[in-house]
Amino acid sequence: MGGSVNDRRRYTSPARREQARKTRRAILDAAHRLFAEKGYLATSVEDIAREAGVARPTVFTSVGVKSQILKEVIDLTLAGDDEPVPVRERPWFREALEEPDPHRMLHLHARNMRMMYVRCADVYCAVESAAEADPDVGALWQAMQRWRLMGSRFVAESLAGKTRLRDGYDADTVADMLWSVATPMVYRKLVRERGWSPEQYERWLADLLCRALLPD
Amino acid sequence: MGGSVNDRRRYTSPARREQARKTRRAILDAAHRLFAEKGYLATSVEDIAREAGVARPTVFTSVGVKSQILKEVIDLTLAGDDEPVPVRERPWFREALEEPDPHRMLHLHARNMRMMYVRCADVYCAVESAAEADPDVGALWQAMQRWRLMGSRFVAESLAGKTRLRDGYDADTVADMLWSVATPMVYRKLVRERGWSPEQYERWLADLLCRALLPD
């Protein structure tokens, strides 16, 4: 009997794992929609369970408490899928780093920012707005700022290795500028609040970066 | 006797008004420091009373509830004094609008932003971070966004009246860009978090605006 139970377990385990993965993904997608629309503070675990069509305890067992859900939503939307590969290892990010022409590199970087912000600007801004009111979210927000600064450094150092920068800007200054201006918040202001298209944002950012950073 | 009371009232009234103005100003300055340091949500009316050296009820009678205090702190720090003159009527704002040379105009605008943000970036960001958690602050935040957009329009239209803009940008696009990039948040990121000096910020912003907006 022990043997048959083990056999059945071995037989159903991949299907169960697939079901667990789907449930988890449905919860994260539901949470993403709600955080983006209503904000993090106004969204409850009950709301997330209802939107995902699962029972409330399933949310806790599949993902965790609300701040853990937010963390996983962020990981998922930054990368665009649930593969455990960091952004800087993604082919689209590497394509920009490896592009030898500095103008084309900045155009690829602007494309990458547009791609990421279409997915994650809303939830990124939800984290920022909840950061002061909730210490767990505050800690996540600080970590996200450090990751984005690190990503900006990669791009700045790669650019500085390819070309003389304007006015003798160094890679640190360029990293600070990318980190403070090419942000999800600026994207959100222009696209959500002022009605720009994502493509218009991409062209504008590419242009701004080329003019601000590269010599004539 | 009625006459003597009236006389005394008339006699002491300017001194009392002056004392009331000083108390009010001490409360607003204390609130500004606390909002900037601790954030709006973490600051109580008790904290403000203690920091200002007044009794708690004096805060309510002199200024009002916490959201009203925040509103008055913002009015005070945006303009830099407690005169009832709107920012766009201030000589330093008019100086930029009236400057005929577009490069010099953008340098004056960058100077104005530096001057304002040195005073108000911290409390501006405190409003943004508390906007989601507190509906009164949310409404104030929306109003502040509209005021800043209106100010950006004045500058954009004045610039468009003086020169051809780059790439056929129109005044609306320029206003959106000023509103989304020349923000207190970008100032705060660069100066508070990345350690730039306010003067470095001013030079960088002037340069960025000239390159992004004006033809070669």
UniProtKB/TrEMBL annotation, chains A, B:
<feature type="region of interest" description="Disordered">
    <location>
        <begin position="1"/>
        <end position="21"/>
    </location>
</feature>
<feature type="domain" description="HTH tetR-type">
    <location>
        <begin position="21"/>
        <end position="81"/>
    </location>
</feature>
<protein>
    <submittedName>
        <fullName>Transcriptional regulator</fullName>
    </submittedName>
</protein>
<dbReference type="Pfam" id="PF00440">
    <property type="entry name" value="TetR_N"/>
</dbReference>
<keyword id="KW-0238">DNA-binding</keyword>
<dbReference type="GO" id="GO:0000976">
    <property type="term" value="F:transcription cis-regulatory region binding"/>
</dbReference>
<keyword id="KW-0804">Transcription</keyword>
<dbReference type="InterPro" id="IPR050109">
    <property type="entry name" value="HTH-type_TetR-like_transc_reg"/>
</dbReference>
<dbReference type="GO" id="GO:0003700">
    <property type="term" value="F:DNA-binding transcription factor activity"/>
</dbReference>
<keyword id="KW-0805">Transcription regulation</keyword>
<dbReference type="InterPro" id="IPR001647">
    <property type="entry name" value="HTH_TetR"/>
</dbReference>
<dbReference type="InterPro" id="IPR009057">
    <property type="entry name" value="Homeodomain-like_sf"/>
</dbReference>
<feature type="DNA-binding region" description="H-T-H motif">
    <location>
        <begin position="44"/>
        <end position="63"/>
    </location>
</feature>
